[in-house]
């Protein structure tokens, strides 16, 4: 059989499926925003809707990185497996749009709102509005700051930074480091940076490591990361020894800039998310590690908490995290560092990506 042809057909089929799914969701999104007849009657939070189902609203910031498409699908599946339903909206990294969408979800009478904030501070408005309507709010993956958020569920983001820095310092215990951060509007980027410095500070204090460039990356985009890396290379006459990039998107941008200077694969770079492109860069040697966060665990736990809280059941959280206003009951899952040595027994074993896709070989 012509493998190229069958792969092409498979890709076409997958793309058609994605377009079809997203067209349906976009249609639902448009309907929810513009057609008043589509807005369901309000009902008291915690009381099942007319169809007898608990309804969860999921307000997402972006679907830009590969991971958020997975989060969306996994969360939907997990909520539905619990006999509830979910309405999902994504705001294209636009604060005002996210607030409007959350208002729509509230007016549709969702029983509970789950939010991935674009801007950690601006989304506090969503929490206030939901609470006025008697609806509890869960922060998903990213913390909403300075708000009476009811629950926070994520991976331990400080640990993500620690794992990145630990792996890079094992390779480069002395040298000139570049830090390509995440979006400064995302509190995760700050937690991650804190984790990075937890590890780097003793090296810096000893004079072994010098931070020669340290910058946030607007919206976490590869393009902005590329520009940052270009500036870092220019400012240091290409004399850098290691790059800690906050996620795989920014790592991709940084590595493209290194590539343009013939340095890809010569300087270790970190990332986060276990995106397919990053996994491929790891096996070819241009990215040293990524941080794998098994998203099914996050989505399933969030769905379980959301449905329980929507029903008014009490929840016991493992710990509390201060968000500037209150101590938020929180559940933090453990991230896993992945490099070429353990990629098979982590992301491939878990079917996060297939072996064929990671190693770019035909089946
Ligand atoms: C998430 C990362 C993601 C980044 C950009 C962060 O808040 O924790 O997994 O790569 O946002 O979307």
UniProtKB/TrEMBL annotation:
Residues 56-313 form the Periplasmic binding protein domain. Keywords: Signal. The keyword Repressor does not apply. It is found in: Cell envelope. It holds the Pfam family Peripla_BP_4. It comes from the Bacteria. Residues 1-27 form the signal peptide. SUPFAM superfamilies: Periplasmic binding protein-like I. Residues 31-54 are annotated as: Disordered. This is D-xylose ABC transporter substrate-binding protein. It comes from Robertmurraya beringensis. The lineage of its organism: Bacteria, Bacillati, Bacillota, Bacilli, Bacillales.
């Amino acid at each position: 059989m012509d493998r190229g042809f069958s792969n092409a057909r498979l890709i076409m089929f997958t793309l058609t499926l994605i377009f079809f799914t997203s067209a349906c969701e976009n249609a639902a999104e448009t309907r929810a925003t513009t057609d008043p007849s589509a807005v369901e009657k309000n009902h008291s939070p915690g009381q099942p809707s007319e169809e007898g189902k608990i309804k969860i609203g999921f307000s997402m910031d972006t679907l830009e990185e590969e991971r958020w498409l997975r989060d969306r699908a996994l969360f939907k599946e997990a909520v539905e497996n619990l006999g509830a339903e979910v309405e999902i909206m994504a705001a294209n990294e636009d604060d005002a749009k996210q607030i409007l969408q959350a208002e729509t979800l509230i007016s549709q009478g969702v029983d509970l709102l789950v939010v991935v904030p674009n801007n950690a501070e601006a989304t506090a408005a969503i929490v206030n509005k939901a609470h006025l309507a008697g609806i509890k709010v869960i922060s998903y993956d990213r913390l909403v700051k300075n708000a009476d958020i009811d629950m926070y569920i994520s991976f331990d983001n400080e640990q993500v930074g620690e794992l990145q820095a630990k792996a890079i310092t094992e390779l480069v215990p002395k040298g000139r480091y570049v830090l390509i951060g995440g979006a400064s509007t995302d509190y995760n980027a700050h937690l991650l940076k804190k984790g990075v410095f937890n590890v780097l500070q003793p090296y810096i204090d000893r004079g072994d490591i010098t931070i020669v460039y340290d910058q946030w990356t607007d919206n976490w985009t590869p393009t902005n990361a590329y520009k940052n890396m270009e500036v870092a290379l220019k400012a240091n006459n290409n004399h850098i020894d290691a790059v800690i990039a906050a996620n795989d998107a920014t790592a991709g941008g940084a590595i493209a800039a290194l590539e343009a200077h013939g340095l890809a694969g010569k300087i270790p770079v970190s990332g986060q998310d276990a995106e397919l492109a990053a996994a491929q860069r790891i096996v070819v040697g241009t990215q040293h590690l990524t941080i794998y966060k098994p998203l099914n665990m996050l989505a399933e736990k969030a769905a379980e908490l959301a449905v329980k809280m929507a029903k008014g059941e009490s929840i016991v959280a493992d710990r509390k995290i201060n968000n500037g206003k209150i101590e938020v009951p929180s559940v933090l899952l453990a991230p896993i560092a992945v490099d070429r040595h353990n990629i098979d027994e982590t992301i491939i074993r878990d079917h996060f990506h297939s072996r064929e896709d990671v190693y770019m070989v035909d089946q």
